[in-house]
Amino acid sequence: MRFIVENFGPIEKADIRIKDLNVFIGRNSTGKSYLAYLIWCFLAVEPDWNKLRELVGKYVPNELVSKIIEKDRVLHEKMKDKKDKDFDFKSYIKELDNISDEISKRVKDLMVEVFKKFEEIWGRNLEELIKDAFMVDDLKELIRFGKDSAKIVVCNDNCMMKIYANIDENGLTIKVDENVIREIQENLFITAVSGEPIYLILDYYKNSEELTHHEFIVENYQIVGVIPIIFGWVFDGYVPYHSTFIAPDGRDGLIRSREVYLHALLSDVVMNEIDKKFMRFLESLYPKVKNEKISEIASFIEEKLGIEFILQRGVPRYVISIDDLKIPIQRAPSGYKEIAPLIYAIKFGLDEDYTVIVEEPEAHLHPDAQVVVTRALAKLSKYANVIITTHSITVLDEISNLLRVRSLSPDEKKKLGYDEDEGLSPENLGIYLFSDGKVEELEIYEDGIEETELDRVIIEIANMHAKVEEYYERSRRLQAQR
Amino acid sequence: MNVPEDCKHKDKFTKREEKEGYECKVILGGGVIIEHDGCVTNGGCDLVAYDDNRFFLIEIKSGKISSKDADKIVEQIKGCENYYNVFIGHRRKIRLFLWYRKKKKKQRMDDQAREKLKRNRIRIKDCYSVFDLRILD
Do the Cβ atoms of B16 and B33 come closer than 8 Å? Predict the structure, then answer.
């Protein structure tokens, strides 16, 4: 999936193709968080459920689905029974086939209609979500200074399939490109097979050639399950109302004042939607592992940092254990408060195919902990799309390092303290440099990454230190000569 | 300046205000640049340059800079530094690594290499084709 953004906030132009691990770097106020939040809005937006239900009801009514299920049941009974000699199996099956064909056609028509009515189903919610996420009353406040409108294109990797969004003084308009409708009409094949529940077979010839296949069973409104699958296929992973976890900046503060924010959530006090979603996600966690493999990543961090993050059913819910000393999270050291939400999410909340956005994962962390968190995020990127913003040279250094780690043998990795599954490959990593309104994708090599503005800044700081040393040295020398 | 008479590369020593021949041409208006070419200190840096106030110990290299490269750069600059210590006198000693590059884009310096140069107070500057030492204050 890809996001092309023009004249949004500080960003003049950005073209981001979401890979497994995506790193946004650049000076303050260059638009890293703006873009991360915008991407989150497009992913997290809920449909207007009433409109969607109405549409599904119109195209694939429950009666039709119930009818085929009932007929299939009768058929099976007759087949078992075999006593009813007058039962015309042939014409009965034909009738069933006709209903199946009818359902197949209607599901496809539903998909076409969903794309045609994208604005109606998602548009208004998206507009409100963006306003809530950026805390603006009018979307035009988000348009780049001096411009009339902002444009956002969400598309597949080669950008043949597009969703256009435009923000101007009238608000947000959004439209799915005609190409997508044509693509669905020509290259999507849906076959419904009668049964209880119905068996749906989806075949999509991506770019008219590459076949993608999926089969699943549906009952009544479960037919909506087709929608995210088709979105994902057409837009290379982009699905509105996608599973996301966003960890905004200032997590330490949010955690420290957790009770206040919980009260705000319950009292419906105006609150940034990102913070709200973050707090809700955290509060909704239950001490039960959702995905074993992903949860192991949390254990990896805990082991490396020598600390355990405990989620309890009772109060206090979030507790950290350091050297057998248990502390409620609100009183934990700031660095641990910062990473706690990420660790809890990894441990109990995340599943495969999530999109995880973490602002400055390095915040409040000692460099060795930054390295551990970077390694954990790289591990996580094998299961979920991970987007991070960072100002940390340590994070960048470790990412460079992980590119090299990939080509080491399992024995060598073990010797160096890396797990066998560790390492990053260039094709799965995207690093974007934000500067002066532009967003540039940096080159990733097998053994490192292109020099960044952050590297140049670090070198200039070192040069300044060297300069101070030069003056100091000379002054000492002159003093000694005197 | 005290350049050893028995240096096997003595013919290659040049004293001028500009030094060409490297892909990175170094300029120092009103000063003297001496090409070392691995002499004087059985290795030594690529160039030394000086004027009334500053004494530059310069190493030039292109391409990727690994940790080993950084060790070499440090060693070579130190070699020159030790040799010229007496001559430097009142001048400010500037240890300089000129990173020659043919195009704008290049791979970032290995973090170990960067740390080694930083620890040894060696300044890192890019050189695209010409580097004017006068800009270094």
Answer: yes
